[in-house]
Amino acid sequence: MKKLFVFLMTVLCLSIVISCSNKKEQADNLPQMVDVALTVQPDPGKMNEPITFEAKVTQGKDKVTDAEVIFEIWRSKADKHEKVEIKHTENGIYRLEKSFPQEGTYYIISHVTARDMHNMPKKEFTIGSPSEPEDAAKKDPMDGMEMNGEGH
Predict the structure, then answer these.
(1) Residue 144 contacts residue 122 (beta carbons within 8 Å)
(2) What is the pLDDT of residues 14-28, one digit of tens each?
(3) Choosing a second label site near 82 at 20 to 30 A (CA), which of 1, 14, 35, 103?
């Protein structure tokens, strides 16, 4: 009986050790999040002069060159949002140059989908004099949220 008890305890201890090492291996194999650094230059900008928008897309140390990137741009309180699909420029950078004919406060969201992950950073920028910003109380709870998984 004593031998059976020692045998069962040994099997139990080995099972625990093996189980813990498998969980560590699984955690090490998880992909890193896709990171998007969104910049607006210059800010503030001037009417009818080009503004450069850049989304630098990385995953860990890798520069992502195969992302699907859409810039969504609108003036504060406007119902119409312009969406522009952006192609890869260089070194994980997706770039758009655009000028604006009207002063005011504007917003850009960079919708980036890469490697089964989605990231949507948002920036506010100004052309000339700022206009009334959007109501912070009505802010979409999904703004700036990073999500991963299928279907997102």
Answers:
(1) yes
(2) 667 666 655 555 556
(3) 35
